[in-house]
Amino acid sequence: MKDFIIPDFAPGDDRDMGTPARSGAPVALTIDGIPVIVPEGTSVMRAAMMADVQIPKLCASDNMEAFGSCRLCVVEIEGRRGTPASCTTPVAEGMVVRTQSDKIRKLRKGVMELYISDHPLDCLTCSANGDCELQETAGQVGLRDVRYTPGDNHFDPSGTGARSQAEAKLRGGHDNPQFIPKDNSNPYFTYDPSKCIVCSRCVRACDEVQGTFALTIEGRGFDSRVSAGTLADDFFSSDCVSCGACVQACPTATLQEKSVAELGTPTRSVITTCAYCGVGCSFKAEMNGDQLVRMVPYKHGKANRGHSCVKGRFAYGYAAHQDRILKPMIRERIEDPWQEVEWDEALAFAADRMRGIQAKHGRRSVGVITSSRCTNEETYLVQKLTRAVFGNNNTDTCARVCHSPTGYGLGKTFGTSAGTQDFDSVEHTDVVLIIGANPTDGHPVFASRLKKRLRQGAKLIVVDPRRTDIVRSAHVEAQYHLPLRPGTNVAVISAMAHVIVTEGLVDEAYIRDRCDWDEFQHYVEFITNPRHAPEANEALTGVRAADLRAAARMFATGGNGAIYYGLGVTEHSQGSTTVMAIANLAMLTGNIGRPGVGVNPLRGQNNVQGACDMGSFPHELPGYRHVKLPDVRAIFEREWGVAIDPEPGLRIPNMLDAAVEGTFKGLYCQGEDILQSDPDTHHVAAGLKAMECVIVHDLFLNETANYAHVFLPGSSFLEKDGTFTNAERRINRVRKVMAPRNGYEDWEVTQMLANALLKDSQGAKWHYTHPSQIMDEIASTTPSFAGVSYERLEELGSIQWPCDENAPEGTPLMHVNGFETGRGHFMITEYVATDEKAGPRFPLLLTTGRILSQYNVGAQTRRTENSVWHDQDVLEIHPHDAEVRGINDGDWVRLVSRAGETTLMVTLTERVAPGVVYTTFHHPATQANVVTTDFSDWATNCPEYKVTAVQVSASNCPSDWQETYNAQAERSRRILSAAE
């Protein structure tokens, strides 16, 4: 028979191949008479699976290294003695393997018999029935009887952890102290030790996949069991982060989702994309009918590679929460209660209001805010609504308040407004520089991959005011933590560049080949000035000069250097300057254009990148092309059949300012809660209150809806088709798992609103029947999406833009052969101190961020069991700062700034330096943004959330503002009953 190469499993093939894939020279062997060619280093087990030969296994899984403990996968190899485990045996040239023989069958059956002898035989009522690897493997090896007499085992039918004397006598033994009760402490899954076969897969998944090292095997022999920590710990109190890796790895019902026990074994699945952070994890939504049972990370998802976090894996219950609004509502004034109406009436009401405003105040008196939570197709339609129907460019997006400096800074330096690498690139990195990002909390699935690379030997530099978990955690520790003073990012990065240039560590060949040499010379003249030296900036930044010099040398000389940054870079008055300084640093060291390097913004929400790509900014049409360019406008004018205003529109802060001034009167806000998420809450509220028509399109009556006149119920990501674009420019399909509970997908609602506005006008009605048609329009008008279609996405799984005739399968790595603008551009990055300064009245600096269990303004995660980990915003303060203020851990404190005040609970920690305090912004009861100011980035108006001068003092009651706000919110959410 002719040798052939069997390809690795294809997308859609979810078989567990037993051990990880390898790359290397081809090796030919024969398995059960089948010739196979596989890469060198491949295990015999994986080679057999690739030849479609099933070998029984219990301890092996293809997302972890081989362990070789269960002994079910034994095989015979010609010329070798014994029966080696196929999972730990690598292939060899000419090897002849037999996976079946009388001897092997006898061995496997005997091993399985031992497993079953200490396992409850309650398969009919077990929650894993029909989805149990132990059950399947017992059938695979032909086990039909257990010869061992019942004796002491770990099975406790009562679930209490103690066996009755009567039961002990029946079993012929004494009271067995080995029983421990089922652990129900975690809100999402249970741990039943009586069903544990001690295969160690959960422990290894926690170590190798997640990198938390929360689980161990405790005891020896018969006493062995999985432990989540000390004897006093359970799965809730332990270091477990509830990512679900252990649950997914468990071959029995030892670790089992509570939803499966309640709703039954799923019978079908739909592959879709998570709607939380910018990692863009792929999931299999597993269903019973139209009931979602569980979300299982999809192993072919190229962003997550089969892993997940607590939000994506478990926190989807908000989609069915009782707070969801499913009927449209209207009201004349914001003081009135809401009135439920039919869709036609709500849309007509909204359209009449908006048309009336434009007739009275002009076509530029209204605008839209698009959402980074919605799909590309939905976002595209919202910006099209303002340009093609309202006739202006008043469109903005939540990226304004998070990553707009990324677009500006990378556009100026590299020519594209996006990150340069895919997530796989981290596996080739030698030195990682993290600045202003907290990946373990904000982007945990990527953080797991990063931690794995760090455990393999990569070096780490962290630039952050806080000592985040990535600085020091299990088996990971940063070589350098540079705890800069908030607001001094530019000074720190420029000081690093100063060291690299003055010490001759630049990659001159790269710069001459790839970058503008004249601009580089000008930059050298700027950056070599002694005022940029680490020693000159030590008092300003709070970073020791020696540490900064050492970190700069490491980054420049340590091999492949990758930079990952987040909102701690962009949400500053010099956010755009810091992004350009980071880009300068990457070009100086030649760290652009190959695997393992690059400049990588970690996007906060699931579709921040896509919202920007789709033309949601007021000065840009889709594809980052300025609206003033006639040739660009002509493309869309031909497609849409209308003239496009060449004048850039209003940004979100400008809309609010204009509303207060009385010139901006109407807003359609899809999927954003600007009252909670945007800075200076008092000003946002004043702007919204001054408008004559605010249309909120969302799942819940959010804080912005307190000032709305129309509420259009939205659909969750489970109820729609479309695409999201993640932080690595990866376009992933979102597939409808169930019918929209409100009756319509969000793109349909926007289309209905557009057509209601176009009534009795000369404009052309919209006639989309599926999101794929919207994507076709995007592809026809946007060069970077030219090769994208739903058919292509189904074929390839996902695509990273640019995707065009030069890159028909997308572009994982940017700038491989040169920059988009031809040359990389070095930019002068002068440090300018923020106007927000600490002083006698406000001596502390507040910075804000996220926590693992919650997401953004908490609208989704607060309506799930995730709130058991974080049910309120808490202020972190250094013990020294607390002591001088007479504040103890757990006290309530008053947090006040020049902009406003609030109260919240305090926790004492050395994670923040003296003079710095930190809190999250997930809970509307706190409304942390009532204290943040209106200072913003000089280029993009991205708010300066990360630097607010504050004072902290003891308090025992809510602030006056909180009481007033809560009363207004309660009145605003009144809904008339049908009888009324």
From TrEMBL:
<dbReference type="InterPro" id="IPR050123">
    <property type="entry name" value="Prok_molybdopt-oxidoreductase"/>
</dbReference>
<dbReference type="Pfam" id="PF10588">
    <property type="entry name" value="NADH-G_4Fe-4S_3"/>
</dbReference>
<feature type="domain" description="2Fe-2S ferredoxin-type">
    <location>
        <begin position="25"/>
        <end position="103"/>
    </location>
</feature>
<dbReference type="InterPro" id="IPR006478">
    <property type="entry name" value="Formate_DH_asu"/>
</dbReference>
<dbReference type="InterPro" id="IPR006963">
    <property type="entry name" value="Mopterin_OxRdtase_4Fe-4S_dom"/>
</dbReference>
<dbReference type="InterPro" id="IPR036010">
    <property type="entry name" value="2Fe-2S_ferredoxin-like_sf"/>
</dbReference>
<comment type="similarity">
    <text>In the C-terminal section; belongs to the prokaryotic molybdopterin-containing oxidoreductase family.</text>
</comment>
<dbReference type="Pfam" id="PF01568">
    <property type="entry name" value="Molydop_binding"/>
</dbReference>
<dbReference type="InterPro" id="IPR017896">
    <property type="entry name" value="4Fe4S_Fe-S-bd"/>
</dbReference>
<keyword id="KW-0411">Iron-sulfur</keyword>
<feature type="domain" description="4Fe-4S Mo/W bis-MGD-type">
    <location>
        <begin position="267"/>
        <end position="323"/>
    </location>
</feature>
<dbReference type="Pfam" id="PF13510">
    <property type="entry name" value="Fer2_4"/>
</dbReference>
<dbReference type="Pfam" id="PF12838">
    <property type="entry name" value="Fer4_7"/>
</dbReference>
<dbReference type="InterPro" id="IPR001041">
    <property type="entry name" value="2Fe-2S_ferredoxin-type"/>
</dbReference>
<keyword id="KW-0408">Iron</keyword>
<dbReference type="InterPro" id="IPR017900">
    <property type="entry name" value="4Fe4S_Fe_S_CS"/>
</dbReference>
<dbReference type="InterPro" id="IPR041924">
    <property type="entry name" value="Formate_Dh-H_N"/>
</dbReference>
<dbReference type="Pfam" id="PF00384">
    <property type="entry name" value="Molybdopterin"/>
</dbReference>
<feature type="region of interest" description="Disordered">
    <location>
        <begin position="1"/>
        <end position="20"/>
    </location>
</feature>
<keyword id="KW-0677">Repeat</keyword>
<keyword id="KW-0560">Oxidoreductase</keyword>
<protein>
    <submittedName>
        <fullName>Formate dehydrogenase subunit alpha</fullName>
        <ecNumber>1.17.1.9</ecNumber>
    </submittedName>
</protein>
<dbReference type="InterPro" id="IPR006656">
    <property type="entry name" value="Mopterin_OxRdtase"/>
</dbReference>
<dbReference type="InterPro" id="IPR019574">
    <property type="entry name" value="NADH_UbQ_OxRdtase_Gsu_4Fe4S-bd"/>
</dbReference>
<dbReference type="Pfam" id="PF04879">
    <property type="entry name" value="Molybdop_Fe4S4"/>
</dbReference>
<feature type="domain" description="4Fe-4S His(Cys)3-ligated-type">
    <location>
        <begin position="103"/>
        <end position="142"/>
    </location>
</feature>
<feature type="domain" description="4Fe-4S ferredoxin-type">
    <location>
        <begin position="231"/>
        <end position="260"/>
    </location>
</feature>
<dbReference type="InterPro" id="IPR009010">
    <property type="entry name" value="Asp_de-COase-like_dom_sf"/>
</dbReference>
<dbReference type="GO" id="GO:0008863">
    <property type="term" value="F:formate dehydrogenase (NAD+) activity"/>
</dbReference>
<keyword id="KW-0001">2Fe-2S</keyword>
<keyword id="KW-0004">4Fe-4S</keyword>
<dbReference type="InterPro" id="IPR006657">
    <property type="entry name" value="MoPterin_dinucl-bd_dom"/>
</dbReference>
<comment type="similarity">
    <text>Belongs to the complex I 75 kDa subunit family.</text>
</comment>
<feature type="domain" description="4Fe-4S ferredoxin-type">
    <location>
        <begin position="187"/>
        <end position="218"/>
    </location>
</feature>
<dbReference type="InterPro" id="IPR006655">
    <property type="entry name" value="Mopterin_OxRdtase_prok_CS"/>
</dbReference>
<keyword id="KW-0479">Metal-binding</keyword>
